[in-house]
Write a structure and sequence with these properties.
The complex is a heterodimer. Chain A has no helices and eleven strands. Chain A is mainly beta. In chain B, the strands form three sheets. In chain B, strands 2, 5, 6, 10, 11 and 12 form a six-stranded mixed β-sheet that branches. A four-stranded antiparallel β-sheet of chain B has the order 3-9-8-7, with no helix packed on it. Helix content of chain B is 0%, strand content 51%. The chains are: A mainly beta, B mainly beta.
Chain lengths: 112, 114
């Protein structure tokens, strides 16, 4: 069955370190998304991609970057982790930009 | 910018009670509407969606939602909740001609007491 996987599932890091969160989907979807989930804010869009070599900023993109070198993967990089980036991060993909999104299991990131 | 409001942040019900969770959005154009559920410790799963047609949409596990365009609302309902419905519920809106990005509400935490 097609799925989205995220790794690691839990990560503790220190302020200032670079961190990369992996997202891999086997749906063969062109559209992929990264969200962060914080209490009271629901999910907020960080970055998204509509295809290989395409990346776009979302609502809360400062301090984050993504790259899309193939259809299956959209890694999220925190260039210099900050305590404000402690959150749960979800990756998602969809067949069409406006269609249902399928979510990964999430990565809980703690920045000390 | 479009916004999605879920006015009930926490709801506590007893089993067999009826449920209605409110969702209002601000965008006036054509929209796709979704309700997602997140069970404790799990990822988001789709409950139901509305794209067009009958404004009363039926989803999984006995949930339904009604799109009322004049009220910019897409409320979620279930006639009789179960303990297993304890979860967080998110309304989400995709506005056409507005970047096709999905905007989520802040979520409603539902606790069902056995």
């Amino acid at each position: 069955d097609a799925e989205i996987t995220q790794s690691p599932r839990h990560k503790i890091t220190e302020t200032g370190r670079q961190v990369t969160l992996a997202c891999h989907q086997t749906w063969n979807h062109n559209n992929m998304f990264w969200y962060r989930q914080d209490l009271g804010h629901g999910l907020r869009l960080i970055h998204y991609s509509y295809g290989v070599q395409d990346t776009n900023k979302g609502e809360v993109s400062d301090g984050y970057s993504v790259s899309r070198s193939n259809t299956e993967d959209l890694p999220l990089t925190l260039e210099s982790a900050a305590s404000s980036q402690t959150s749960v991060y979800f990756c998602a993909s969809s067949e069409a930009p406006s269609d249902e999104q399928f979510f990964g299991p999430g990565t809980r990131l703690t920045v000390l | 910018a479009q916004s999605v409001s879920q006015h009930n942040h926490h709801v506590i019900l007893s089993e067999a009670a009826s449920l209605e969770l409110g969702c209002n959005y601000s965008y006036g154009g054509t929209v796709n509407l979704f309700w997602y559920v997140q069970y404790p410790g799990q990822h988001l799963q789709l409950l139901l969606k509305y794209f067009s047609g009958d404004p009363l949409v039926k989803g999984i596990k006995g949930f339904e939602a009604e799109f009322i365009k004049s009220k910019f609302s897409f409320n979620l309902r279930k006639p009789s909740v179960q303990w297993s419905d304890t979860a967080e519920y998110f309304c989400a809106v995709n506005a056409h001609n507005a970047g096709n990005m999905l905007t989520f509400g802040g979520g409603t935490r539902l606790m069902v007491k056995p």
